[in-house]
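Hey, I was hoping to borrow your eyes for a little while. No rush at all, and the record is pasted right below:
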Amino acid sequence: MESMSSYLSRSDVKKMMTTPTSEWLNHMTRDPIRATYYDKDAFYAPSDGFVLYSKIVDPNKDIIDVKGGKYTINNLLREEIKEKCLILSIFMTFLDVHVNRLPTSGFVKYEKMPSLKVTNLSMRPIESGILEKMGVPKAQMSYSLFNEAMKNEIFLNNIKQKYYLLQIADFEVEVIAPFHESGAFYTQCERFSTVRMGSQVDLIIPFINKSIKFSPLVVEKWHVEAGIDRIIKISRN
C-alpha cells in the first residue's frame, strides 16, 4: 500500500496515464499472478484501488453527504441491518486490475441488484478527482445508491458472523461476473469475481459479535492491491 501522491508519481503509473484510451481496456482486464496470503486475524483488500473512506457508522445514518438521496448502509445494501457497521470503500480507476479477491476465507452468497435508474450513473467525476486533482469529490458519489451492483454476503467461520462486499458498477459496465455459483467456498485472497470497466467495492462489517474488534489499517486516499495489502485487523476484546 502507498499514499495517493506516491502511487501517482510512480514512473509506470505516469506512463499509463499518458497512453491512448484505446489501450485502457487491455490494462484493466489483465489478471496478474499473485501470491496467496493467509491471516485469520486480518481482512485483505478485496480490490485494487484508492480508499475513499473508512469509518464506523449507524446503518441508518448518512455515511457522507451526497447529492440525490440518503447515503446509508441500509440504502446501499437494500436491507435492514440494526448493528453499527465498519464500512471501507475502495475505488478502482482504469489503472487498476479489475479482478476482485476475497478478504477472508468463507462461503459467498451473492445477489445482483439492478440499477434504480434507467441507466447507471457515471463514476468519471470521482476518477477525475483522484487522478487529476489528487482528491475525492464525495458529493458526486450518488451513483452508489442507484447503479447496478452485486451484493456478496460472506460468512466468516472463525468469528461466527457475516459481512458484505458490495461491487458497484460504472455507467459503462455491462458485467459484474462471479467465478462460481452462489454459496461456493473461497479461501482467503482467492479470486472470486471481476468487474468489467469501473468501479467501486465497499466492505461492510456489522458489529454482530460484540467480543470482536475490527481496526482499519489504511486511511483515506491510500492505494491498495487486492489480496496483497491487509486493510483491517481482527482482535478479541
